[in-house]
Amino acid sequence: MESSRIRLPAVAGTFYPGSVAELQKMIETYLAEATPPQLTGVRAIIAPHAGYIYSGPTAAFSYKLLKNQTTKPTRILLMGPAHRVWFRGVALADYTAFETPMGEIAVDSETIQKLLEDNDIFQPLSQAHSNEHSLEVQLPFLQKIYDAIPIVPMLFGDVDPTAVAETLNSYLEPDDIVVVSSDLSHYHSYAEAQNLDRDLIDALLRGDQIGVARGEACGQAPIVTLMTIAQQHNWHPHLLDYRNSGDTAGDRQHVVGYTAVAYTED
Questions:
Q1: What value does the CA radius of gyration of the chain take, rounded to a whole number of Å?
Q2: Domains of the chain
């Protein structure tokens, strides 16, 4: 893999503000308005990845909870679905950093190289990352709450999530945080979306991987990967927030669902 490459922002100015001042103010407002429960021992979160005016208020629940933890992670395993490129496995990239209007966030290139060497589930596929939004929209929130914590960005294609979980388990460190990027149901009526999303969330909270896999979420594979890791480490899920675009900035005829979930360890 090549070195010294920066992944430039693809959706700044569309999914979130391209102006640093406007972006900072928007995130600060969302974080101030979020009211997550007082949980400790957070090891993972799920956050949505739509445009901030739609999903930012929900994402802020997950990130404010991380911000409120007494200890900070040393590495962030960042997982999301690929929307624009089809491939098998999990796509890794040769970037040394991802850039947003708020600056650069370093990539843990050493871990990426080890994953590529140790398991063929992981593929060197920079083109899958270049225009993808699912990971990018998480970065300004991470930059706002943390200082200089490296990421391991992973995009999921056609892959068995339990196999990914088994591999990642051997890399997981006590100070790691897992961040999963996923929206829920897409383009149903408001009431139908609520029913579909509640079914998936209920399955997630009771640890029912089959129920989640039967539901509707663009980040199903990363979610099931997290559920598998959580089961093996005895992490417990907590619902922080649920709403859809009909609650924030869209109409109620064709909505997209969003949830914020945290996993804690005993």
A1: 17
A2: 6-171+190-247 (3.40.830.10)
